[in-house]
Amino acid sequence: MKYLVTGGAGFLGKFVESELISGGVSKKDIFIPRSADHDLRNAEVCKKLVKNIDVVIHLAARVGGIGYNQAHPASLFYDNATMGINLIHSAHLARVKKVVIVGTVCAYPKFTTVPFKESDLWNGYPEETNAPYGLAKKMLLVQAQAYRAEYGLNAIYLLPVNLYGPGDNFDPASSHVIPALIKKFVEAVRQNKSEVTIWGTGRASREFLFVKDASRAIVLASRKYNSPEPINIGSGQEITILKLATLIGKMTGFKGKIIFDSTKPDGQPRRSLDVSKATKLFGFTAETSFPAGLKKTIAWYKEHRSRV
After folding, report:
1. 133 tagged catalytic
2. CATH number of the domain enclosing 48
3. Which listed residue (3, 68, 108, 133) is catalytic?
4. DSSP symbol at 125
5. Which of 60, 1, 59 minimizes the C-alpha distance to 30?
6. Which among 98, 101, 191, 211 is least buried, having the fewest CB atoms inside 10 angstroms?
7. What is the extent of the structural domain holding 118?
């Protein structure tokens, strides 16, 4: 089996490649295109990439936190939609055996009953600050289901929660909440700051999944799941941003004051997934405890902080 893993050189992609190899796939049978050489927004590039490929795992995405989403709504919509549309269409033309699309929890409506069930996906509009990104990725579900119905393409769609772990993006201009908080607190301790300011009220909640668990879920689904319905991928545990910040502050040794800037947006009020289908349909359950995952992520940042 020949695999194409878009975004394979990125944070999640490196773990997916490792998971494939540990499961018996030869490294030479995994092709990882680099964005500098292969622009997935170009349909002709996608057509060339999928030649002689059996399984496409589409991880490539342009992503960021709330501030980044607010600053770049148009490019986030265009880039994510175009990459996915081109790739799925090219996979169909090349008669690829299977396509795994990794979507986003941002596709869910802003106000969704917790825990989010896959059947809730179309019950409202996404949270405004990341709606363009969420809707762009959501359209790939529509395309995957349409291409299955008309052309018989075996395309599946996964809905992961926020990921975190070693190798995450710690750039404050585009990082998500966990790496952003780790960087803030580690640097505050190093600089002996007496306070740390965080966006929002702290009341919003999120669910997080350790990146190694996410990679295992994706590879399991690529082997065992073959249906059109989207599937949630998560840990099944919810935490408020206040509790998250307090926990990261404690784990990094910060002893100062945590201030929440309520003039900044919270984003979606709550996020927590019903992950029972992933367990039932392809045997996925998260294994890494949240404290253990945070400990590994903090340690990685401290070791690599001068280079990230």
Report:
1. yes
2. 3.40.50.720
3. 133
4. P
5. 1
6. 191
7. 3-164+208-237+270-287
